[in-house]
C-alpha cells in the first residue's frame, strides 16, 4: 500500500509481510532511506516462565525474544537514514533487556526516550 503526493512520488509506504524476509527484500531498494520504523514484537515470558499478563497468546521466552529481535534490528539499522528513528512497543518485563539490545545495535548515545503508557488498573503492559 502506497501513499503518493501530487508529483506521483511515493512519500509513505506500508509494508505487509513476514518481517524477516520483508526486511531482507527492503534492503535492496531502501538501504539508508527509511525515516521511521515501528516494531511491535511478541511479549515474552519472564525468567520464571510466566507469561506477560496480556491478551497475547504468542508470548515467547526472553532469550528467544532477544534472539529473534537481534538480526531484525541489525537489518533495521541498515535501512534507517542517519536521522531515522525506530520505535518499539514492549512490555515492562522485557523493556530493560530490549533496550540493552537496542543500545548494542544502535549505540547508547542514540537513545532518545522511553514513553510509558497508562493503562486501566489491573492490566500490566
From TrEMBL:
<keyword id="KW-0489">Methyltransferase</keyword>
<dbReference type="GO" id="GO:0032259">
    <property type="term" value="P:methylation"/>
</dbReference>
<dbReference type="GO" id="GO:0009007">
    <property type="term" value="F:site-specific DNA-methyltransferase (adenine-specific) activity"/>
</dbReference>
<dbReference type="InterPro" id="IPR002941">
    <property type="entry name" value="DNA_methylase_N4/N6"/>
</dbReference>
<dbReference type="InterPro" id="IPR029063">
    <property type="entry name" value="SAM-dependent_MTases_sf"/>
</dbReference>
<dbReference type="InterPro" id="IPR002052">
    <property type="entry name" value="DNA_methylase_N6_adenine_CS"/>
</dbReference>
<dbReference type="GO" id="GO:0003677">
    <property type="term" value="F:DNA binding"/>
</dbReference>
<dbReference type="GO" id="GO:0008170">
    <property type="term" value="F:N-methyltransferase activity"/>
</dbReference>
<protein>
    <recommendedName>
        <fullName>site-specific DNA-methyltransferase (adenine-specific)</fullName>
        <ecNumber>2.1.1.72</ecNumber>
    </recommendedName>
</protein>
<feature type="domain" description="DNA methylase N-4/N-6">
    <location>
        <begin position="34"/>
        <end position="117"/>
    </location>
</feature>
<dbReference type="Pfam" id="PF01555">
    <property type="entry name" value="N6_N4_Mtase"/>
</dbReference>
<comment type="similarity">
    <text>Belongs to the N(4)/N(6)-methyltransferase family.</text>
</comment>
<dbReference type="InterPro" id="IPR002295">
    <property type="entry name" value="N4/N6-MTase_EcoPI_Mod-like"/>
</dbReference>
<keyword id="KW-0808">Transferase</keyword>
<keyword id="KW-0949">S-adenosyl-L-methionine</keyword>
